[in-house]
Fold this protein.
Amino acid sequence: MRLNAEEVRLFQRDGYLSLPVIFTESELETLAADAAAVADKDTPQRVMEKGGEITRSVYWLDGLSDLFARLVRDPRLVEPARALLGGDVYLYQTQLNPKASFVGDVWKWHQDYLYWNREDGMPNDNVLSAALYLDDVTEFNGPMYVIPGTHRLALDGETATRGGADGWENTVNADFRHEVGQDTLARLVTENGLVSTRGARGSVVFFHGSLLHASGPNLSPFTRTVFFARYAGMDNVLRTVADPRPDWIANRAPERVSTLDQPLLPV
């Protein structure tokens, strides 16, 4: 699917673009069932919430599921990513966040790119996330909050790296390693406002790698499952770092993403 000039302009201005319900109900039912099956498996790619009983995230969906390997090549995701990043893209990362009812934990305020730069050696922020809602995302079940326009801000100096344990696990749990100062957040919300990116399941939100975002806990009885495909420009290949995270978190063998020439599901 092709974006129009106004949609590209809105993304460039605000740092995000919401496309309502661009996947069908049959596709969503199949994707949600496959996602639930993957999230139930005890794999190295699965990260648990505090307490160790509830899945917080699963990485490398494109490696764990043939269906999601097809999804990341779907033109409904890839063509907008190309338009917004200005050319061909590679798949940097995939992630499933099945924020469970009543217990799904917070994701603190952060710019993804600062993580990817500091942990993985990503040289620039020509990167975005395509967030596909596999459940309805409401004001009650932990929607993603964004501060519009902050993708244009370099907040490296306002983002402190905490001490503590090394290892990739400590870059993906609820106790974030890199934290934006509260004074900075308060100022930016006052200046730029605050948006809750709610939407019906089947919707997709594209958001820039440097957009400040967060999500609160899920205090409702409704799950909030979101799949993220992270696309980067072909010029944005990871540099060598001293202690690289696993390849299934940070792709170090980029290949140009080609779009599917068949429907996502068998006809």
